[in-house]
Amino acid sequence: MPWLSTLMAVPAVGAVAVAAVPKRNETLAKQLTFAVSLVVLALAAVMAAQFNPGGDRLQFTETYSWIPSFGIHFALGVDGVALVLILLSALLVPIVVLASWNEAAGTPEAPAKRSVKTYFALILVLEAMMIGVFAATDVFLFYVFFEAMLIPMYFMIGSYGGAQRSYAAVKFLLYSLLGGLLMLVAVIGLYVIAGKNTFLHTELIGAITDPGVQRWLFLGFFIAFAIKAPLVPFHTWLPDSAAQAPAGAAVLLVGVLDKVGTYGMLRFCLELFPDASRFFTPLVITLAVIGIIYGAIVAIGQTDIKRLIAYTSISHFGFIAMGVFAMTTTAGAGATLYMVNHGFATGALFLVAGFLIQRRGSQYISDYGGVQKVTPVLAGSFLFACLAGTAVPGLATFVSEFTVLIGTFQNRTYLVAAVIATFGVVLSAIYMLWLYQRVAGGPPSEGVKSLGELNGREKWVMAPLIAVILALGVYPKPLFDVINPSVTQTLSIAGVTQDPEPTLNVAVQRGAGQ
Amino acid sequence: MNQIEPPVIEYAQVAPLLVVFGAAVLGVVVEAFAPRYLRKAIHMPLTLLSLAGAFVLTVWQATQSPHNAAAMGAIAVDGPTLFVWGTILVLAVVSVLLISDEDHFVGQASALPGSAEEEESITARAAHTEVYPLVLFAVGGMLLFPASNDLLIMFVALEVMSLPLYLLCGLARRRRLLSQEAAMKYFLLGAFSSAFFLFGTALLYGVAGTVEFRGIAEALTRVGGMDTLLLAGTATLGVGLLFKIGAAPFQAWKPDVYQGAPTPVTALMASGTLVAAFGGLLRVFWVALGGLEWDWKPVLWGVAILTMLVGAILAITQTDIKRMLAYSSIAHAGFLLVGVVAVGDAEQNREALTGLLFYLVAYGIATVGAFAVVTLVRDAGGEANHLSRWAGLGKRAPLLAGVFALFLLAFAGIPLTSGFLGKYAIFAAAGGADAWPLVIVAVIASAVAAFFYVRVIVLMFFSDPAADGPTIAVPTVSTSIVVALAAAATVVLGVIPEPVLNLASIAAESLFVR
Description:
Mean pLDDT of chain B: 91
Mean pLDDT of chain A: 90
Number of helices of chain B: 20
Largest interface: A-B, 34 and 37 residues
Low-confidence stretches of chain B: none
Radius of gyration of chain B: 22 Å
Helix content of chain B: over 70%
Oligomer: heterodimer
Distance between the termini of chain A: 33 Å
Radius of gyration of chain A: 22 Å
Distance between the termini of chain B: 32 Å
Low-confidence stretches of chain A: 503-514
Strand order of the largest sheet of chain A: 1-2
Largest sheet of chain A: 2 strands, antiparallel
Strand order of the largest sheet of chain B: 4-3-5
Shape of chain A: globular
């Protein structure tokens, strides 16, 4: 069974169906979207169950010739890394749909410009493309999804966002397009210089040998990914977009779309340009560490909840990038797990913040206070999400953050970087717990007293996220089992493994909860 | 004794030309003898059938092989010519469908704007049905231009193509002064550039002793590249050709003319003329002056860079939709020039030519579609061309705005639209010719250009509609066909480009005959 193309086709067809629903029947459009996203989740789960971690590197492969004149294939396939990211997308979409039930109507000060059903159709289009971008094993196909993904997100921010939405949407699109176009140059360069007349990723590995050429091509890809991820100094679009996007779109943007950047670094930068990766590693690690600290400090100073969450993500993306480029298996596996966990943790944060903002009608922290006395369940969910953002032991984010740090310490070259990055953990406690204190602690402020408690639908939104974060925090082994072989293979293809002696590795991995 | 040999004409090969010109002459006869009320009823089928017939003949030609120069070597009916013919004929048919709409052309061009005579002509429902034969003559010229295999024929074609267009430009029904000014400007500057062309022809004749491309190419091998006369001739000839495609610094006419001309005529000029002009430009530089490559290449590099930047940057400041599309057309001429200079060995030339041909089809069709949409957005004074009037169009006419957004995304080169693959094909060809700086400038210009395309989308979808906004004219059947066809072609060429790419590469296989 062609699993991956089915996974893409179901939401794509679903999007058309949702768009065809009569405009007045909004409920039907929402229910249909939810049903489709559940079908996708079920399919993804069944597919994941059939994945054999010890088997071939790429599984569920499909290859069809798409544009033979340019050597472009519609080629799909997943390894462990892509699989867990597809699972992340498939799980987040139904949650986001449920959370966005009443959101597409817009806020009182910025009513939505487009109909409700369009929003849900766009979510499904986006889901098809998100699955496609992680499943693509043809560099050109990856690029097509990488760019095409921008359009639905652009309309989601621009049509359904907050007051500054059109500014945010344009900034988002132009930043991403510029990065994408630089990548296009590198994609062309890869094709022309490799001279293999194909874009298949597996064929292109090792095709570019000249170190100078590798560096230029690496830069083309890397800048695009660094804008997407985003790393400092390419990050300025993210706070605007995340703050203006409706909470559901923000979850997909930060939780999944931005992961394409870090995934691309692991998949394309390391595997296609190993020499250049080694050459640029000090630079990338430096940027990552700056991002960790800078994002955390700026997050502390934010007055807007959504912007604060966006800056915490910049800090977290620093961790992921550091893990990818630390060149040890532990760090790479940690970074991959971090991508997944960050999706859930930040998703929970954005959604619960969205519930708060929807009730109170303000994004400003100063408008809140004492929420825990008025709405204990809502405040409890918020506290849980904040703790997940802080990476408290027992929660999923702790495992990944710890693994990344351990993995980076293993590579003795970047000891200093790892030490500095560790301070990011401390800072994360400040920005998250202080946020919680200001919003939920103290006596209830005037506008907060009338807030309503989470309703049944909203509880169903938070429950699976909390469950997943807890489960992966206590028992991350299934994910590590899938991720580890893939990361090992990626690093061995790249030929850049800096793993320490096995004895030490085992000891450390035991410490990492395996 | 002087014996005059009768020239040999391969009628079958030039049949498409003969059909179009024959129909044009017939149209003049109809204009002279048919009663007024019958004229349009005769012109429409005559025009459409002759264009369709010419298209069928072109297709039939394409199945015949081998192709060679016809009419004593004056007309080259080769692969590229046939492809360009097919493209121009399709674009002409859709443009004629637009032209056939009422209300674009003035009732009596000789009546002074605002005079009593004008009133009379309106009440008498006078109409200039001459536009049909004029269009046919222009299309005939467009067909002959890229097929000409000697400079004199090319000059004749240039004039046959241009003179009817000068006239058509001045026939707008609304804002007649602007229209007449456009016609005047176009005529004066066009005549000026024709003079340059002719001057260049004379100088090259001085060098080569012949005006045939083959002869000039042969002569180049004898005189080498350092002949002053040769360089001066090349330069002046180049000025004449670059004027027609609207390359900087000869682009000044484009915005004024595109803005003033009746929109269907603008559509014909922006698509058909551009295709024809590029066909001719390619033949002159690749065939006749191919041996001079090292001399013209740096100049065209500069022109291409300047054209892309001028088009992309000046478009940002435009407030009129037609002027904006004109500057966008200038930027696209720049992108196409990138393909023109991407020459190298035969394989490389084939690749560049394939890319150019595909780009011309993709851009031409999207352009006609975009202008067709422009004709539909109207207010009391005719078309509402000021960009501010387009605010909130997405709310008022979601389908129309959506289709226009699709064309804009295609212009911007977003994946899954025709424009993206066109750009990719050209940039890849330029990469193959090691013109990396040109590719980098081209992607930067693309990013800049994306800004103003996206701005229109923002205006249409994310802004509030103006209180007294324009009305959306109910599209006539012919306009609907044009918009639907263009939209379908834009998507299909973006998703399943292989058939057209294949045709283009077959057409490019033999390159140009000499």
